[in-house]
Amino acid sequence: MTKRIIIIGAGPTGLGAANRLRELGYTNWKIYEKNSYLGGHASSHLDENGFVWDEGGHVIFSHYKYFDDFIDKHLGEDYLEHMRESWIHMMGLWIPYPFQNNIRYLPKEAQVKCITGLINAQNKEGKSAVDFKEWIIETFGEGIAGYFMYPYNFKVWATPLEHMDKNWIAERVSVVNIKRIIENIIYERDDVSWGPNNKFKFPLYGGTGEIYRRLEPYIEGNLAYGKELVEIDLKKKEVGFQDGSVDRYDYLINTSPLDLFVEIARPIPQELRDWARKGLKHSSMFVVGIGVRKRLESNKCWMYFPEDISPFYRVTYFSNYSPNNVPKGRVDTYCSLMCEISYSEFKKENKETIVEDTINGLINTGMLEEGERNLIVSKHSMDIDYAYPTPTLERDKALRAIQPFLMENDIYSRGRFGTWKYEIGNMDHSVTQGKEAVDLILEGTPEVTWSL
Question: Which of 186, 205, 238 finishes a domain?
Fold first, then answer.
């Protein structure tokens, strides 16, 4: 109890750490959050018209018993469970996800191009891909790459694919079995069960953020809001905040963006700042919520949009997740569409027109009809600066330089942007990283989720 632990950020990772400290009965700790609410980018917001919106698409699924227990403990039975129904809109068609397993929906000419491309790719000897773009063509061939993988991934990442590494992929991208794909075509069989989130939970009330709001009574004695980190003194082991307050730590768990953290830490080798600037890139995102006065006649969960007839790469029928995401739970009267639009220096979007651009995209893709504009009763827009930590070609070199230095100084940078690893950036990964960081600090238990 003599060692003071400071946690920066009350998102899933910070709260995972806080939850673990409470479980262990440890008392000498504090969690600092710059906002006035818990949850970070997993928070939810109620707009002035009574619609609930998440900061992007979040669903509850898990790789970890600890996260399962965390959800059971704080959410109880206040959740709904859904079978994923996700689709891709392109060529004026609705194609079940994942695209590469369901190309039977395409016109015959496109099917032939996809199959031919797959055969050529799988028969090619000497795989030599060094970046994500090359990996796509080596794995899927020209047809699937050109029709879907290239345009969709640029829309999501807002980054040229040749700037991205290939080693983050793992379960994030469904690879292909050509025999299975041909069977799907011949037997006219949908193939929709791939992925860890084909079955998921969602809070009955309050959106995803409800999970984390329920922790507040559990940790309120150790929680401080409105604390924006502006300085870290590695020698004195002190953190300074914008309001002028200072606290001392023995161990620091950081969940704020690693690039910003490195910039304000002192003293730190210039080489590490250079690595952060070079290797730690990210994309930003607009989340545009459109509330409509009409009953939704669809069981779809979320949809992907690779074409340029819309600005968004994904739309979630958010009212299908819980009726309480619309005013008074009246899904017989209202529905809600949550749209995600990425942007970066490589992919510009106009903040002033993004809501109208989104509505036009919904009409262009058939999600709304032109005559339904007057049924729109809510327009809610969020600008999220740090949305996706980009797995650039230089990222892992940067992390291998920065993270050991921080750990030598008793700083554990974890979470979606604390580790800068999208591949372990889901909520279950993030909460568990916080728990494992505490176990390492207090008990010396090696981390399993995070590694260099």
Answer: 186
